[in-house]
Amino acid sequence: MQKNVLQEFHDAIVDMMSQSGNKNILETTIVEGYNSDKERKLLQWGENNGVKTRLEIAYVKGAGRGAIATEDLKVGDTALEIPTSLIIVEELVQADMYHALEKFEGISSETMLLLWSMKERHNGDSQFKIYFDTLPEEFHTGLSFGIDAMMVLDGTLLLDEITAAKEHLHAQYDDLFPALCEDHPDIFPPELYTWEHFLWACELWYSNSMKIKFPDGKLRTCLIPIAGFLNHSLDPHVVHYGRVDSATNTLKFRLSRPCNAGQECCLSYGNFSSSHLITFYGFVPQGDNLYDVIPLDIDAAQDDFTEGSSISNWTTHMVRATWLSHNRNIFYYGLPSPFLDCLRRARSPMPHTKDLLPENLKNEIEILEDLRAICDDMMDNLGDADLDDRKNTNWDVKLAIKFKDIQRSIVSSVLTSCYCGLKLVKDELSKCLAEDTPGSKQI
């Protein structure tokens, strides 16, 4: 009886997951005529070496190369299974390279693998030659944005993120080169370790690597041939894939929602904002990203900070689009409560209640006016959407404009909430004042 109850419970949960997944199906449009010989060779190489797959590689409109289900897959089915022998891990770094890098204090295994891949990419006898042959000559991530795209991003959080990431990579490269090439030219040939090759390898590892836990308990950053074709989605089919199955010594990509034959099978890269996905992966996901935010700096009184905390005159809050909230009532307006409380404290240090009292409503009008002024300034800084160079065919400019459109839409939603909130509060305040006025009530 216990077994039957658990089976019924299991079936009910799977059915609910299937129904929920079917509501979020995105149309997959395959681009015909794309030459996928290299990808087919990689799949064949994988299958010859123990890979089990129910996917094929095709060019998907709006997403580039993607993994397409060859049959109907249910919740719990394994779409892809890869033996650990085909996973690129730190143990592949040759002994001579490892010893040459030991003198660099604090160098990570990820950096060692990055340097290994720069050389292995050109190794005709590499075990992973077929995999490297499928990789693009250029990765179109934010790290490769040109001057025009960076100018489009002026006044955005993404500009700061890309600039900081580039500065970090330049500093990392300067720490390693040309010292390594001069001390060990046989291990680090100068022609293979240019800045351009270094940036290519960084983009490869940022956009394609996965963190995997192995049976020994160690978490490793890896490149996984074939699995790299699984694109990111806000409604992924595969969610949990970060642990090697100790019984089979393979990495299994199991489905958490159904994927029909001919549909692109996607996984989740993580809970990332579009700014992060552009910087390190080079795309904006389809749909409403819950992690897309705008930073709002609010002047906060120092009394708000407890003893022992760092004192600052400013507090930054990350605010997402208000259309994602269901509470548009007075005191909420589709905005996060901690952010609104911060605005209230900035106006008055006195404790605030959510009672519909005239003094509270007057304070609400003031904070909504303050917020409206802040967002008006932000919209001015983002510029007019009609002035963006949308005819520019450069991939980076197009991506930068997409990001600015996302930022504008979030700020616009906050402004709309301010206007709607002001109307609500003013109407409620009029009612309160009318009730308090002598003779306003009928006898």
Automatic annotation (TrEMBL):
Xref: Gene3D superfamilies: set domain protein methyltransferase, domain 1
InterPro entries in UniProt: SET_dom, SET_dom_sf, SETD3_SETD6_MTase
GO molecular function, one term: protein-lysine N-methyltransferase activity
Domain SET: 53-270
One Pfam short name: SET
Tree of life domain: Eukaryota
SUPFAM superfamilies, alphabetized: SET domain
Protein name: SET domain-containing protein
